[in-house]
Amino acid sequence: MVFLSRNHLESILLISFSIAAILITLPCEYKAEENGGGGGTRATLVPTIIFDSLPPSTFHVFVLSLLFAFTSSLSALLMHDTRDNGTRNKSNYSQLLHVVITRCFGCSSLAFITSALAILFRALLLTATSSPPPPPPPPR
Predict the structure, then answer these.
(1) Model confidence over 80-135: pLDDT tens digits?
(2) Across-strand partners of 47?
(3) Which residue windows are transmembrane per the record (predicted)?
(4) Contacts of residue 23, Cβ cutoff 8 Å, sequence gap at least 6
(5) 119 vs 121: CA distance, rounded Å
(6) Is 45 helix (H, G, I), strand (E, B) or coil?
(7) Does residue 92 contact residue 14 with C-beta atoms inside 8 Å?
């Protein structure tokens, strides 16, 4: 199993927080999205610069991936810091369980930040390769 060091976990935490902070500042617009089960449509807020060419559900998956990457890396960091202090007088089983849970949080944070970055790069690629809108006709 992959063991992520404290530096790796901190970088995942920093990347996910930075992307989320930048995401708040992007201009957004409401896009119509079909409801899954009941039919009809609902309006969802989507950034127009990057995620305009993708369906709104892709943006939602991106935000959830960022959220899970942030919380998983923070949990792994908090458990990583308590490894020496909290489990000193406990059994070997407790120490092993602590290590396994910490590694699971670390691996899940790596998986979630990878999926978030893949979605972001796909959105950037589609935005860069899409044709710009046609210019307005000249006034007569």
Answers:
(1) 776 555 545 667 887 888 888 888 999 999 999 999 999 999 999 988 888 776 77
(2) 28
(3) 12-32, 59-79, 100-125
(4) 47, 63, 66
(5) 6
(6) strand
(7) no
